[in-house]
Amino acid sequence: MSRIAEDFELLERMKNNGQAERMEAYVRGILEEVGEDPERSGLLRTPKRVAAAYAFLTQGYHTDLEKVINDAIFDEDYNEMVIVKDIDFYSLCEHHMLPFFGRCHVAYIPNGKIIGLSKLPRVVDVFARRLQVQERMTQQIAETLMEYLSPLGVAVVCEGHHMCMMMRGVEKQNSITTTSAMLGEFSTNPNSRDEFLRLINTSYTSRG
Fold this sequence. Notes:
The chain has two domains: 3-57, GTP Cyclohydrolase I, Chain A, domain 1 (Orthogonal Bundle), CATH 1.10.286; 71-200, GTP Cyclohydrolase I, domain 2, CATH 3.30.1130. The chain has helices at residues 3-16, 19-33, 46-57, 65-69, 119-128, 134-149, 163-166, 185-188, 190-200; strands at 73-75, 82-93, 99-109, 113-115, 131-132, 153-162, 177-184. A five-stranded mixed sheet has the order 5-2-3-6-7, with helices on both faces. The protein has a two-stranded antiparallel sheet with strand order 1-4. The protein is 44% helix and 24% strand. Helix 5 packs across helix 6 (134-149). Strand 2 (82-93) and strand 3 (99-109) form a beta hairpin. Mean pLDDT is 90; it is low at 203-208. The chain is built from nine helices and seven strands. 27% of the residues are buried. The chain is α+β, with helices and mostly antiparallel strands.
């Protein structure tokens, strides 16, 4: 399904179950509470736009992993590390509902099965497009690949910039939060873990 078709399906679902109307009312209330006039020209369509934006940014709650993977797991006699790095992600912090974003690096060591490479970023998106904490998101990505592929190991490292630290609070503009999940071979074998970290060229330090 194309991205345009997905967006259309999402908006239709919102309209059919009354979600869009309720969200628009909530946004209108927020505008009023911060001292704005929802009737002024620049804000007339803001509730509708915000409702659509939040529906898109949280669609991971409604995404079926089975459909995402979509029969893209194949038998293959290959047992060397597979890495897809620098996967962009955008998510929302569940504490302040402000964005956090960055890069995700994913690796697995096959055990008779491989997955289509485009599916790895799709799996990242499923968990990024929810209200999240980066720690949980990282673990969910790793556990999902472990469940569906039964590989020898899975490694995930995420590096994120958090607007809740940049726009408010401590207001630190250059801080990067790094989280990791090492399962199977990557947890028990320091050589595999170090090879992965070296190949993604991250500043994360292996804890042998």
